Amino acid sequence: MYFITVCAENRECLFGRIENEKMILNEMGRIVEREWLKTSEIRKEIYLDEYVIMPNHFHAIVFINNNGIGISTVGANGRSPLRMRPKSISSLMAGFKSSATSCINKFRHTPLVPIWQRNYYEHIIRNEISLDKIRNYIANNPGGWPNDVENNGNVNTTEKQQKSYYNNLY
Questions:
Q1: pLDDT of the residue at 82
Q2: How far apart are CA 66 and CA 136, in angstroms?
Q3: Higher model confidence: residue 131 or residue 160?
Q4: Helix (H) or strand (E) holding 104
Q5: Beta bridge partners of 71
Q6: Contacts of 118 (CB under 8 A, 6+ apart)
């Protein structure tokens, strides 16, 4: 089980707005949701749990039913090609981000414009207590938007707080 967070490029609010503690998706947010839900149709080893699309980021819980995670570190020639392994969180995120980016750029008529930050945050969920806390966090995330560490408008959050925030969630 993984808890994943991926942010929009420059934390730009692309996917909608928070209104009365609820996320109102715009067309780009609906594209993100559609592409996320396609993930489990395309990748049979994936089970999607709770998720929330926020104005400038996305949180999700994912179950991967396999033993391979991460990236391949040694190629046939003994070198490190850094290729993504199939059925891994890295290949899942690369596919999702690529698909959502392509669809959003087609919608906006903006070819090759980045939608997502280069990396993403992942955390292995190790027990039911942690899973329950993360599910609760995801469900309540829109209500906490004014103080969210990913909210560019939150002037009370320092960079140090952003880096350590997720570690305190578990």
A1: 42
A2: 26
A3: 131
A4: helix 89-108
A5: 84
A6: none
What does DSSP say about strands 16-19 and 2-7: parallel, antiparallel, or unpaired? unpaired
Single-letter amino acid, residue 129: I
The residue with greater pLDDT, 149 or 8, is: 8
Hunting for tokens 């926020």 — which residue is that? 54
Beta strand ranges found along 16-125 (DSSP E) = 16-19, 22-25, 46-53, 57-64, 71-72, 83-84, 121-124
Instruction: Determine if residue 109 is left, alpha or beta; phi over 0 gives left, psi from -120 to 50 gives alpha, anything else beta.
Output: left
CATH number, domain 2-144, options 2.30.30.90, 3.40.50.970, 1.20.190.50, 3.30.70.1290:
3.30.70.1290
Q: How many residues does the chain have?
A: 170
Q: Mean pLDDT of all residues in the chain? A: 84
With contact defined as beta carbons under 8 Å apart, do 133 and 170 qualify?
Answer: yes
For residue 131, give the 3-state DSSP assignment: helix
Per-residue pLDDT of 73-129, as tens digits, reads 334 444 434 444 567 899 999 999 999 999 999 999 999 999 999 999 999 999 999
Amino acid at 121: Y
Sequence ranges of the domains in the chain: 2-144
